[in-house]
Amino acid sequence: MSRRLYVSKRLAFATVLVAFLAIITVIAVIITSQKQKNKLTGTGHPDTKVDPSGPPPNTRLPKDLMPDSYRMYIQVHLHTKMNVTNYTSTFSGNSTVKFRCVEATHWIIIHCKELNVTSIHLTDEHGSAVAVKYTSLKEDDSNFLEIELTDTLRANTTYYLFTAFEGLLGYNQDGLYISRYNENTGNQSSFGFLAASHMEPTAARRVFPCFDEPAMKAVFNVTVIHRVGTVALSNAAQKDQKQMSIDGEEWLVTEFHPTVKMSTYVLAFTVSEFTCKTTDYGRYVLKTWARPDAIAIGHVDYAHSITGNILESFEDLYDIKYPLNKLDQIAVQNYVASGMENWGLIIYHETSLLYDKDFSLTSRKAFIAEIIAHEIAHQWFGNLVTMEWWNDVWLNEGFATYLSYIGVDKAEPTWNFSELFFIREVLGLLKVESIDNYRQLIPEVEEVITPSDIEDLFDFITYSKGAVVLRMLSSYVSETVFVSGVKSYLKAYQYNNAEYQDLWRHIQEAVKSNNDTTQVADMMESWTKQPGFPLITINTSSGDISQEHFMFNESARYNITWQVPIKLLKSGSQEITQDLLTVNGPVSKPIYQSNNNEWILANVNCTGYYRVNYDPENWERLLRQLGTDHHMIPVVNRAQLIDDAFELAEARHVNITLALSFTKYLHKDMELSPWATARLKLNHIILMLDRSEDYSFIEAYMRKQVSPLYDHFEAFTMNSSIPEQLTAQELQIIVIGMACGSGLIKCQKMAVDTFNQWKQNPTSKWVHPNLRSPIFCAAIAAGGQQEWEFLWQLFQNTTVEAEKDILRGALSCTKDTEILKRLLEYTLDLDKIKKTEFYSIMKSITNNVAGHSLVWDFIQKQWTNLKHKFGGEELILGAVIEAVTERFSSETELQELTQFLSDHGEEDFGSALWALEHAIERAEANIKWVEENKQIILEWFRGESVAY
């Protein structure tokens, strides 16, 4: 499953918010569903009793029964349009699971949740019935349907369990559910419904009674019964289809070929009126499905075109062919994840698959390529070889995240996408693990018990840290050796399950074959079985090196040791030296000693997961090297030096002026990673000081640094075009925003002239989508009422979501506080601003220093109205509080926060309370930071700035 963004607690929260906004309720359907729900509680079997009493359960299935195959019939009672009578939103069906009894027992334990089980029958391999004595559906975290038998099941014997069931097609995006979508047909917009499934991690039990654990793999024989005029998809290719009358209505009965042996969580179905784009690759047929209007205008063309290349790259890399004869991809407007890797039927959120070349940024194209590569990688890592239990889910998600960069590089070789690994995976991970002691990457099996325990593992640790440690291992043992070990691992466990020790063992064999003595398990378990990461301290005068747990809060540090792979580069040499630090130290090694005033750089290309601190002399040498010829230091390490210096300053290991000095060379650097990192680090300073009377010195410094880069991209920008390389495209956007935002006159003039020219024909496409956000924002900031009203009318009239996103952000850039107040009032009017747009509007105005205090005043005055508007959705309000209070750094603002909490009381904030409490904590920390750093920082900028 493609990740939601787990970079910080705030971003994790924003992910929940996005999921909230994605759920669109339809009142008529909800009423009907509620009526059905009243009928479908518990289980319909006459002997079934619900037993909620007793001690907490063992939620793992016993190993005495092992499934072999399922034969399933699912009838989806869904109308894809609302203009019908007797609308229903249920499904029904039956399943026969063939299982083998491993150990004699008189119990069948199987998963079942929120289903009305209407019939249960059991027969042995000869067709003889086995009587059911008693059934119990547990109302606890086990979700067990316990079936007690009158006779004992015999070991080494095959049995068949038949269950008939009914369930609700809800909107909760778990199991089998309804998704609403909007479709544009000509000048009119209509909406329809489809049924889609999402089984990961523990929702298959909400669709049919099953052995719902990843190690309980089986073959699935699926038949879907659906309305005439709809298309049913599942994991395997269609085998047969016929039309038949059921209860006086005509239905299509679509039978699919048997699947390969697989886990329940990758079982999938969809029923829709979608159409597709098709390519026959010989061994398999690729179909990409979406709304008919999206197919017609080519919005799936890009995703469809790159999928085959990405799949082929993984086939070649691991020497295992994609084992199915078809691959369906489908775009669902409201989906819980960016994508879900169901074998043969990958379901994506629409934003992960559709690309509008007229309005979408190229970063959207990169996002699509990354998500597709992630899901295709899962066809090997997760589907072909599956973790034994969910504590090892990182074997799925860490590999898929790591390989997504390789897949995109194959599909788009000019993008240099792998360079983004550091700023997308490593930077945020280092930050959050510096603040809190998060969990270890691989928890113990007994720590992962309940469904909520399993859900909690789908976090930034599993995705990003999993990818980071795999990349670190690959770099240390060499990519060739790593791939060889992974190939062996995949072939040994294909169609089966594995644990992390199995991976280490196969990579160890590859290491041994390469005459290497690295002990893979020892090294890797220091990273996967311990939280956090180390700070490596090198004294280049003495050659001493040591490690310690890096945390901002000293009292939270653990006395733990990692086996740290270190790659070392010295000035005047292209040779990279490799070492493994296995003790806390300090220990003295000649390779870490500087000779003849040379600089030493550790963690070359940032393949290791740690920070580095040096003696003051080596820091100064690195600074001088950046000032004379920054190309001598690898581009990712230039970003690393900036990041490490600022974070070490925050932890009081170095002075803040040293960190600021690492931004001085940037006017000569034309690469994305250093600039993206520096902007991230400087953003906190700007937020703390942009209301200061001396902020003009910071603006002047920013103009000085960014001006050469603006000139570098000016030819592209003036012609509204973009460079070929993705990293250059992203840097161009950053540069325009920083140049115009810091007051660079020629940038602001360009923005105003471009906007005025575009105003003459706003339907023209000559302003590239990449450039619209920074240019329109700068033009609105420099303009007045007339420019704002023009953009507001376009925003009201457009139906293209990508365009609305651009215009909504630009409208918030005005410096006119009266206009901003009006825009805030518009958020209370659903005819002007939709509920789903509320957060982004508030966030955008908050980012505008002219609007920051206005948003806070608005929230305080309108809290009662906002509570009523977002009743039951306080998470949205919490996200707004989190955003608007980020700048708070004065005693007055702290008092306002505490008074706001006091005036309303904790209970009035509901699920938004955490945001207000966090805002108070952060304001206290910001006040302390300003007291310690403000004067030092402003004096530094005063000395470095020049008039621009």
Automatic annotation (TrEMBL):
Q: Required co-factor? A: Zn(2+)
The cofactor remark states: Binds 1 zinc ion per subunit.
Identify which top EC class this enzyme belongs to.
hydrolase
Spell out the protein name for this chain.
Aminopeptidase
GO terms of biological process kind: peptide catabolic process; proteolysis
Which PANTHER family does the protein's record reference?
Answer: AMINOPEPTIDASE, PROTEASE M1 ZINC METALLOPROTEASE
- Family per record: Belongs to the peptidase M1 family.
Q: Which residues bind Zn(2+)?
A: 374, 378, 397
Residues the record marks as site: Transition state stabilizer: 463
- For the keyword Nucleotide-binding, the answer is no
Highest lineage ranks of the organism? Answer: Eukaryota, Metazoa, Chordata, Craniata, Vertebrata
Q: Tell me one Pfam family matched here.
A: ERAP1_C
A molecular function (GO) held by this record is: zinc ion binding
For the region Disordered, give the residue spans. 38-62
Q: What is its EC number?
A: 3.4.11.-
| Keyword entries, A-Z | Aminopeptidase, Glycoprotein, Hydrolase, Membrane, Metal-binding, Metalloprotease, Protease, Signal-anchor, Transmembrane, Transmembrane helix, Zinc
Could you tell me where this protein is found in the cell? Membrane
Q: Where is the active site?
A: 375 (proton acceptor)
* Positions of the Aminopeptidase N-like N-terminal domain: 67-266
Its membrane topology: Single-pass type II membrane protein
The lineage's top-level taxon is Eukaryota
